Amino acid sequence: DNRRLTRRLTSAKLRQAATIENVDYRTARGLDRSLFQNLVTCQWIRDSNHLVIVGPTGTGKSWLACALGNKACRDGFSVLYKRTSRLFADLAQARGEGRLARLIAALERVNLLILDDVDGLTSAAS
Predict the structure, then answer these.
(1) Which domain holds residue 110?
(2) pTM score, whole prediction
(3) Quick one: DSSP state of residue 28?
(4) Tens digits of per-residue pLDDT, 77-102?
(5) In terms of Cα–Cα distance, which of 27, 49, 29 is closest to 38?
(6) Which of 19, 60, 64, 102 has the maximum number of C-beta atoms within 10 A of its C-beta?
(7) How many domains does the chain have?
C-alpha cells in the first residue's frame, strides 16, 4: 500500500507538498469549511464532476488544489498536476510528433487532472 501511494504521489507531480490536514480555515480567502470538507471525501471525483478553484492571486488556490490532489492519491485515485501552459506545449509537441492521440488517451486515464495557472494564459495572451 505504501509503495502504491508513493508511486501515485510521484506520478501526480504535485507542485506543493500540501495536505488537507494543514488547511487553515482562519485565513481570509473565502473558503467555505463545510464545502471543503465535502470535497475532501472525493465523492466528486467518483461522480466524474469537475472543480474550479477561483480567487485573487496569492490566496492559495494552487496549494488547495495540491492538498485535494494529495488526498485523492491517498484515496487511491490517479492524479496529474500540470501547469496549463505546459500542458498546451506538451499537446503541441505531441501533435508535431504524431503521438497526440496517445497523450490524450493517457490524460483520459487520470482520475483527477489538476490544471493550474489558467489565468496565466489570459495574461500571456494580452
Answers:
(1) 2-125
(2) 0.84
(3) S
(4) 999 999 999 999 999 999 999 999 99
(5) 49
(6) 64
(7) 1
